């Protein structure tokens, strides 16, 4: 079941380095848990998957340079940034790419 994009629920910032290190910073606690994250190349989107199998799109288009860098990504780090700009509750999610 598709959910409202994460960027509509929380302020988010997505970072991926040229070697595939991927980080998603979010303000405020997340409303749900996630089992893994995947790149949907057909829709150029990042999707977070809940334990129940629900899909939540990040809500940001993944442009070709980001997708290229994500080829080497094996995990995504989720970091909650609180109101004092302190990083809290770091989580690691398995990262996969959907086959086109």
Q: How would you summarize what this structure contains?
A:
This protein is mainly beta and 100 residues long.
Describe the structure.
The protein is mostly beta strands and 100 residues long. The protein is 11% helix and 48% strand. It has two helices and eight strands. The chain has helices spanning 6-9, 64-70, and strands at residues 2-3, 12-16, 22-27, 36-40, 45-49, 55-61, 75-81, 87-97. An eight-stranded mixed beta sheet has the order 1-6-5-4-8-7-3-2. β5 and β6 form a beta hairpin. The two termini are 21 Å apart. The model has no long low-confidence stretch (mean pLDDT 92).
What are the main properties of this structure?
8 strands; mainly beta; eight-stranded mixed beta sheet; 100 residues
Strand order of the largest sheet: 1-6-5-4-8-7-3-2
Q: Name the helix and strand elements from N-terminus to C-terminus, one letter apiece.
A: EHEEEEEHEE
Which spans have pLDDT < 50 for at least 5 consecutive residues? none
Radius of gyration: 13 Å
Structure class: mainly beta
Mean pLDDT: 92
Compute the number of helices. 2
End-to-end separation: 21 Å
Sheet-strand content, in percent, reads: over 45%
Main sheet summary: 8 strands, mixed
Specify the helix fraction band.
10-25%
Characterize the quaternary organization of these chains.
Answer: single chain
Number of DSSP strands?
Answer: 8
Shape: globular
Topology:
Blueprint: E1 2-3, H1 6-9, E2 12-16, E3 22-27, E4 36-40, E5 45-49, E6 55-61, H2 64-70, E7 75-81, E8 87-97
